[in-house]
Amino acid sequence: MVRLTELASLWNIALDREVPAAQQLRRELHARPCVSGREHEAMAQLELALSEYVSLDPVADTGAIGRIGPAEGPSIAVRSELDALPMTERTGVPFAAGNGAMHACGHDVHQAALVALLRAAKGLELPLGLVAMFQPREESYPSGALDIVEAGTLERLSIAHVIGAHVHPGVRSGAVASGGGFINAAADEIEIRVTGRGGHAAYPHEASDTVAAIAQIALAIPEVVRRTVSPLRPAIISIGTLAAGEGAANVLPAEARIFATMRTTDPADRLALARAVDETAQRIAESFGTSASTRRIEGEPVLVNDPELAAGADDWLTRLGIDGAEPMRSLGADDFSYFCDAVPSLMMFAGVQTAGHDPQPGLHHPSFLPDDDAVGLVARALLAGYLAAAERVLGIEHHRSGSAALA
Asked: Which residues fall within 8 angstroms of residue 54, CB to CB, at 6 or more apart?
């Protein structure tokens, strides 16, 4: 079997040949984005680009999955998201999308990078199967990652680890951030409904004031977080909607509503914080002569990187000539966390910039546009992750930082 260092060198050289075509593919994908659940056109384009390299089977409705390398035994999955966001692009580039959707989260880069990685692997002797996972519905519910896990796909393809890489303007351009432990938060939604007796604004004593009650609950929520969760464990509840009434100035509404996101970084805090919000809402509502009900809509779990995979990937990145960066931890959420719950997995972040902007536009911004170099950077991050996972499965002690770069 070929040594991993030799494989890495050959694969890296092959990527130099494949990246230019993948950069053009990225522009084509960017110009025709597909929103969550409607990724058929994007998937068809990717299948065409890979028709001579891997056979892909449907997964999670609009996604696809396929395996190269050894057909039997353990495998390592490499994941790319398929979906774009329903928003209007404002980049002004010739390949900007014009269909009311936009790749404002870099998924077009991820797709092209995975294509480059797979095409560059042609003719190489892989020690373990590489499963290409083109996952739909990362940006919306129901989660494409959860569908893949619940369908038994990981077990069917003997997937030992899943590797992902995501572009991010918060990481130094050209560097890749790894890191073990907590990376992204669990993201749930909280709905609070306050109900009471509606009435005339001139006779508030004959009604119950749901507006005052919902306002006090909104003001109390930050205090609930502070008094429930240790300040050493990041957590936040952000209210996105506060609604009451139907536009009249002289009507006291019978119902009011809060809709918020709750983000936690420790599994034990998810239920504890939701319970605390419910109890506080009920008590405040009762003090206004109203009643409150709370509903938690469960979202993605905490994304926790495997420390051993992260350390191994960092070393391979160094050998591939890519700078490392401090771990990128945030209260953002990604359904890659479902893979991390199922098997030890690794999500990395590739530092990118949007040319001509200061400050840099963030993810989901209408001007966000990583440059073409991002395709090669993400492809090599995925390569480093595969090599680290292969070491783990094969029981090889990974090389240490400071090792000589690949020839």
From this structure: 66, 67, 68, 118, 132
